[in-house]
Design brief:
This protein is mainly alpha-helical. It is about 65% helix and about 0% strand. The chain has a two-stranded antiparallel ribbon. Helix 5 crosses helix 10 and helix 16 packs antiparallel against helix 17.
């Protein structure tokens, strides 16, 4: 048992109360010091570094509003839609809670996408932060599962038919597909069993996983320290420190960055409130108009599409046709031939690559396009997990990479936005071609990164962070 800390009898009531708690719950005060007041973050953080805190804020909003919604929601296929309407029309402030939750889902993906893009720009996935990135990608995957399951709960037309389309995609998996789809649905069609299943995962199972990953993400980040726009390690063995051992290029997270984050939170809440009060559906992108119609298994909407934050990956799924399979076969054969003929390696590895190339080409030809669409859609997310080992550039930050890297990253962002737009549009020949090119570029960006990231002359990285007081 630790010794109690003594305090002066003349101390204020607040100091005495703090001392009383610190003597009885020292772990909390130690955690505060480790993760706030004595956690030194680089002093050159910019606008992009606020989105991590905003993501945490939105997570809290989603949990709190979700608790209030569950008080009145009925996870029953015959009552779910009516219970949502009851929340919107009869529960005091129910419309506000529901719109906060639905808008919060989209806001969550906005801040997470921007947070991930910042990591991509400044190389926050590079050594020693690989595990931080992996936990972050796990959060993104859990968030997608959480959003998809929550999308079904209003039991409107788009909820029902969107779930019908996505769940049926799993039936395309060879051998186990039909059984897998049956396991996910809990029945032979999307119905009451599916709704109850998704409700339990949305409310209990996935949030627990999500919270665990968030805690792991933060602990791993604070163990290795935050990255910065220069990609300079402020706590490295050569980093300058003061007499107390604190990095000279860092400042305590509290109060310096808590004030910074409070300002960004104020701006975010202003925009968030404006959307909730003036455009909660945002033209049908945040809440589709068809979802205000009760689910009808006998009436299919003219165009079925997921919510906007899934649409880039949905575009990739739709891009895989029989024609696209031929292109993919050529890509696999070309990559295999290049590896065998141009890269120096032992003959055993060359034989293994040649064999894998043949197996891959045959599999692409043998299995239907629908299956490979599911693989591509899932692979687009799974690929992100391997990013720390794909980037071979000598520097971390985009600031010190060759200038053409910036244009390549800009094209990547534009391509992602175009895929998202095409995902909400009805299928068309032109849209199909554009999405196929966009899918090839998306995967080419990552799969060719070990090669292109080494090309070009990098700029000299400073020994210390660039910072101008303001």
């Amino acid at each position: 048992m630790a010794e109690f800390k003594e305090i002066s009898p003349n101390a204020s009531a607040g100091e005495k109360l703090t001392n009383w708690f610190e003597n009885r719950f020292p772990t909390a005060f130690s955690a505060y010091k480790v993760h706030m007041s004595e956690y030194y973050a680089p002093k050159n953080f910019n606008f992009w570094y606020a989105f991590g805190s905003l993501a945490l804020l939105v997570l809290v909003i989603q949990i709190v509003t979700g608790i209030f919604l569950v008080m009145h929601y009925k996870p029953d296929a015959n009552l779910a839609f009516a219970s949502v309407e009851y929340i919107m029309r009869d529960v005091p402030w129910g419309w506000l809670i529901r719109y906060m939750h639905s808008t919060g889902a989209s806001a969550f993906f906005v801040v997470v996408y921007l947070h991930m893009f910042r990591g991509l720009m400044y190389g926050s996935y590079r050594q020693p932060r690989e595990l931080v990135w992996l936990f972050g990608c796990g959060i993104f995957l859990a968030l997608m599962a959480e959003a998809f399951m929550g999308y079904l709960l209003p039991w409107g037309q788009m909820s029902y038919w969107g779930a019908q389309v996505i769940v049926n995609l799993f039936a395309a998996v060879p051998l186990v597909g039909p059984d897998l789809a049956l396991l996910i649905r809990g029945d032979y069609v999307v119905g009451d069993a599916t709704l109850n299943r998704f409700f339990s995962f949305h409310v209990i199972a996935v949030p627990l996983v999500l919270l665990g990953l968030v805690v792991a993400h933060l602990l791993a980040l604070h163990d290795v320290g935050s990255n910065n726009p220069d990609g300079v390690e402020i706590k490295g063995p050569k980093a300058p420190r003061d007499a107390q051992g604190h990095p000279l290029d860092g400042v305590p997270f509290h109060p310096y960055y808590t004030v910074h984050d409070i300002f960004m939170v104020s701006v975010f809440l202003a925009v968030f409130s404006a959307v909730i009060f003036f455009a909660p559906e945002l033209g049908g992108y945040f809440l589709e108009y068809n979802n205000f119609i009760p689910a009808d298994p006998l009436k299919t909407p003219l165009h079925i599409a997921p919510v906007w934050y899934f649409t880039p990956f949905y575009s990739m799924l739709r891009a895989i046709t029989d024609e696209m399979k031929i292109v993919l076969i050529l890509c696999v054969v070309g990559a295999g031939a290049f590896s065998v003929l141009k890269i120096k390696m032992p003959s055993v590895f060359k034989a293994a690559i040649a064999g894998a190339t043949v197996v891959g080409a045959v599999a692409l030809y043998a299995f239907e396009a629908k299956f490979w669409g599911v693989v591509v859609m899932g692979g687009a997310v799974i690929t992100l997990f391997f990013l720390p080992w794909l980037d071979n550039c000598a520097v971390k930050s985009i600031r010190y990479r060759p200038d053409w890297h910036k244009y390549l990253y800009a094209i990547f962002v534009v391509n992602f936005v175009v895929l998202a737009y095409l995902g909400v549009q009805p299928p068309s020949p032109v849209g199909e071609r554009v999405s196929q090119v966009g899918t090839l570029f998306y995967f080419g960006f990552f799969f060719l990164m070990p090669w292109w990231s080494k090309i070009g002359e990098t700029k000299p990285v400073p020994d210390r962070v660039n910072f101008t007081a303001h």
